[in-house]
Amino acid sequence: MFESIILILDATLRVSAPLILAALAGLFSERSGIVNIALEGKMLSSAFAAAAMAAVTGSVWLGLLAGIGISVLLALIHGFASITHRGDQIVSGVAINMLAVGLTVTLGRFWFGLGGQTPALTDSSRFTAITLPGAEAVADVPVFGQFYSQLFSGHNFLVYLSLFAVPVCYWVIYKTRFGLRLRAAGENPHAVDTAGISVAWIRYRALIISGILAGIAGAYLSTAHSAGFVPNMSAGKGFIALAALIFGKWKPVPVLFGCLLFGFLDAIAIRLQGVELPLVGEIPVQAIEVLPYILTVLLLAGFIGRAVGPKAIGQPYVKSR
Amino acid sequence: MNDSKIPSWVNIIVLPLINIMFAFAFAAGIFIAVDVNPIEAAGVMVRGALGYQEGIGYTLYYATNFIFTGLAVAVAFSAGLFNIGGEGQAYMGGLGVGLACLALDSTLPFWALLPITMLASMLFGALFALIPAYLQAYRGSHIVITTIMFNFIASALMVYLLVNVLKLEGQMAPVSRVFEDSAGLPMFHEMTQWFGISFSQSPMNLSFFIALICCVLVWALLWRTRWGYAIRAMGASPSAAEYGGINYKKLIIVVMLISGALSGMMGLNEVQGYSQQLKLDFVAGYGFTGIAVCLIGRSHPIGIILASLLFGVLYQGGAELSFDYPNIDREMIQVVQALVVLFSGALALMLVKPAEKLFVFLDQKKKPLNGVKAEA
């Protein structure tokens, strides 16, 4: 029993990592006032770019860089449309998502000729498990040893990075001048403008940070979680991250828990497949898979708490003349 | 924008056309990047889509889907609501059609079944849009986010139903049984035969004409009725509409019901018209394409028909293209589509400022001339 709980939690951590990174990516852009439904497309493009670069060069770090690069590029397109040209943020997000689905497969087929997949990555071109110091030594200590050596040790670099990113984001958002201005841009852009600070520049920077984080999340999918890119491998994770962002009410720590919850559901869904539970019988996997979406809908409707986003979200800022 | 300095014909026709040209130019760049000559490719596409009867049939069959989903987005858009749940609503609509066919196909001929399947598609689609609409109107949750979530809920529900309920015993593929032949919608080539004209076989069917009728109905609703006026008033300015005595909560519900019903009717074309069984993923992104169709068609039924034809050509031509060029597949068309959404949707305002400057400049050039004339 204990053993299987550890296994589920271990899987939770692995599944949650890209969600955490992507949700933090969404946090930055939405806190600055830009709706980010393009997370899915950014993750997918980055997953492809990272795997393609890692496959060609053999270096996972160059892969990560390529993933971040393409994701930032998409973020800039998003910004160009919705900040500079005051276009609809949702429409440009939809466009980026479509573009990612099409381009990754088209280019993948052209470059590698494997039906849109990239060649399988070997261990040197992947993020592999890191054994934390002392994990072997304490493995036999009851409870603590198992927690430390099995649950906390043995993940790849990006999992640790995603956990580390939460306090950093918290600090940036709440403790820095940039964070203050960022939040103000999402709540009351006029006030920011009145203070002589460029709303557009704040939002652009927020989108660039968002691109970097979403890029890491995408690279995780293809170079850490799996060993290569397959078409449409983000499979809605960008939207789950968006759901977790809403679930965490646009605040870093609750968002972390939202991601862990959704990751936990995902980990459980896999384990419960075909298992007869007492009283309720077999729960269909799909029922657990849709829980994040249903929970988000209920939350948004105020049936379980209330999720109120940044006030100026979704509105292009027009400097009044 | 009443104080626009640009003549309206430029705003309605010229700027959108330039935007689409931008999209095509970028698409051409990507074609070149994968070693395909874009001009040759365009030739193959147009010939493949419009050059022979079967191609035309396929083009119109695809266009049918786009008319339904495009109209659905347009009706909601006219009221200022952005319904990106077309994917899920169409999925549910198809489910309604499928269930009606599975239940009644052995007892009723198509003409008796058609009203039932139409009603089922509209009902399922509308009810699936009703929940996000209700939540937006009465609980203040945002329709975009809720409809995204509902797309996933629809697809999970469909997987569950096909895998656990509708799948045939002893079969691996998650598909329902094939309907009786009598349940299928008349195909276009069969219909022309009634008049003694022969037309090549294609999946184009009766629902194309149902889609055209829907265009007329939507046009009449939006521009010829009180409701339509209220809908457009709400789209132009929600606060003014409310001040003018329009009950916007009720209107949100009505608009989304119509929008969902239109999306749902896409199921007629795909399920009863084409595959004649329930399958996974028959919506295949047509719901999202509806957004592009609505944006290019400027939310007007005539524009939507034209935009649907354009996308029909892209889809059918794209399929044809993938025979000739190994580097190209359906996904390439999605790239073109994405660029169209980007340039004619998200970047729609990009050219307004330069155009304004141009026309102000032209005006200034004209004025002294006029002055001279007046003096003389």
UniProtKB/TrEMBL annotation, chain A:
The keyword Transferase does not apply. This is Inner-membrane translocator. It comes from the Bacteria. It is a multi-pass membrane protein. InterPro entries: ABC_transp_permease (IPR001851). CDD domains: TM_PBP1_transp_TpRbsC_like. It is found in: Cell inner membrane. Its main location: membrane. Keywords: Cell membrane, Membrane, Transmembrane, Transmembrane helix. GO terms for cellular component: plasma membrane. One of its GO terms (molecular function) is transmembrane transporter activity. The chain crosses the membrane at residues 7-28, 48-78, 90-112, 157-174, 206-223, 229-246, 253-270, 290-309. It holds the Pfam family BPD_transp_2.
UniProtKB/TrEMBL annotation, chain B:
Pfam families: BPD_transp_2. Keywords: Cell membrane, Membrane, Transmembrane, Transmembrane helix. Its main location: membrane. The chain crosses the membrane at residues 12-34, 60-84, 91-112, 118-135, 142-163, 204-223, 251-268, 280-297, 335-352. It is a multi-pass membrane protein. GO terms for cellular component: plasma membrane. GO terms for molecular function: transmembrane transporter activity. It is found in: Cell inner membrane. It comes from the Bacteria. This is Inner-membrane translocator. It comes from Shewanella halifaxensis (strain HAW-EB4).
